[in-house]
Design goal:
By secondary structure, this protein is mainly β. The protein folds into two domains: about 1-35, no CATH class; about 75-280, no CATH class. It has no helices and 20 strands. Strands 12-6-19-11-14 form a five-stranded antiparallel sheet, with no helix packed on it. A four-stranded antiparallel sheet has the order 1-2-3-4, with no helix packed on it. The chain has a four-stranded antiparallel sheet with strand order 5-9-16-13, with no helix packed on it. The N and C termini lie far apart (about 80 Å).
Amino acid sequence: MTKLLRVGRDSMTLLRIRGRRVFALGGATVAAVSVALAFSVAGASAAACSTTVGAASCTVTGNLTVTAGTLSLESSPNLYWGIASTGYDQWASASGAALTGCAASGSLTHCSSGAAPVLEVLDASGAGAGWAVSEYLTANGLPAGSVLHFNGAGSATYGYSQVSPITTDPFGGTTPANVCDFASGCTVATAATTCSHAGLGFATCPTYPVTMGGTSATTQVDLYSATAATGLGAICFASGTATAAGCTGATPTAFYNLGVKGSVASGSSTVTINMAVTSGP
């Protein structure tokens, strides 16, 4: 097909010569600019692949099944405090490793070889119901008048005490922070504002510091409750970043603070803390 286009006073004719397009402009012939048009035609879906019949194109369907796991708790099995009597009431955070070299330093106590305890919740249930960490005490042999608190704040150095009246916890009440354990794409826990575990002995959420107590499985004390749809995966009570499984490398935020009177008698004592994690905040 031949078209005559007029531009100003000049004429430009589009010719087809041996399958090519050229312009005749004022007697001169100029090669036309080629334009490529792309068309997309939707074809039928490819059939499923087969192990017996070959095909140039076929589909493979992938299937994933996730089996529900359990809700569980990991914790340091032992806690250690060391107090050198100075005549003053002292508070110290528990170490997860045995303390050595505990001695008076003025009105305080300084120990060596302290290490942070570990507290971790593993919610592999897939239910997203939230959870609660609680405790009760048995075989409580701590000195009379002692106070045991769970808190998100404590001694800057494990094995070092602070002087404060037994009625005044020197560590500010702080909700423990939490992070994902190493290799866990977790959903970090959010502290619940509505809690109800009447069967365990509590129906309100904790405020910090929490006074640890209870004497049986039905008089437990709530240490931390995670609201529904949070706390999924491996949750470290810590801040920072875990560099290996078991919350390694993260900075713990679960402190067990013990206050001891200045009049306490020398000697050793123990307390058994029964820890539990249950579904629902």
